[in-house]
Design goal:
It contains 4 helices and 6 strands. It has helices spanning about 1-10, 15-60, 65-80, 130-135; strands spanning about 90-95, 115-120, 150-160, 170-175, 175-180, 185-195. The strands form 2 sheets. Strands 2-1-3-6 form a 4-stranded antiparallel sheet. Strands 4-5 form a two-stranded antiparallel ribbon.
């Protein structure tokens, strides 16, 4: 019995196919992770493109805008961004202005003078709309505006939905947990400020 086991232990026939199978599994895993990262960058580019597309459409709008209009723009965003699950993305549109009066014609530079909020709306009830205080906190992201000038801010957020979902699985090694790849918690956000192409935007809650 010992001799049979000893001969089996020393027998190296078939080692190359076994090593080949192990190597193929490692390569497949590497390709899966590489594809997931490529897909994440691709979806990130699409999300940015969709946000700027919506912002451009909004800047050309000549009629009054409101919640229904923003909801329609959210559908445009989901289509251009190829959002796989529309419920995992949201859009917030805010109208701002650099107020001017007889005594103050200074531009809003975000330091000495900050913009004021006209109105704000979010397609997701769980995402708060901006207030005059919170919009002033974003002054460092808003370009300098002349006195009397208005602009719209389009904020979008969408979660990445991995094709393979490797990152959502926990791997336990040596008593410690680790993750490989990207998880569905990765979020793509955009903040786009555009002035109206024609007249200033007017907010109407019935539109």
């Amino acid at each position: 019995m010992y001799n049979i086991f000893n001969r089996f232990r020393k027998n190296e026939s078939g080692s190359i196919p076994i090593e080949g199978v192990m190597g193929v599994l490692l390569l497949l895993g590497w390709y899966a992770i590489a594809f997931e990262f490529y897909d994440a960058f691709r979806m990130r580019a699409k999300a940015s493109k969709a946000a700027y597309t919506v912002a451009d459409l909004l800047s050309r709008q000549q009629e009054e805008i409101g919640p229904r209009f923003v909801g329609g723009m959210k559908k445009v965003y989901d289509y251009v961004a190829e959002a796989r699950i529309s419920e995992r993305s949201w859009m917030r549109v805010s109208l701002i202005e650099c107020r001017a009066d007889n005594d103050d014609w200074d531009p809003c530079d975000g330091v000495n003078k900050k913009v004021s909020l006209i109105n704000s709306y979010s397609t997701d009830p769980t995402v708060d709309t901006h207030t005059d205080t919170t919009i002033k906190d974003e002054s460092f992201r808003i370009p300098i505006m002349s006195a009397g000038e208005t602009a719209s801010i389009v904020e979008t957020s969408s979660h990445y939905n991995p094709v393979i979902g490797i990152g959502d699985k926990v791997l336990i090694m040596g008593g410690e947990s680790t993750r490989i790849g990207l998880s569905s918690s990765v979020r793509f956000s955009n903040f786009v400020v555009t002035p109206p192409r024609d007249e200033r935007h007017i907010w109407n809650t019935s539109k």
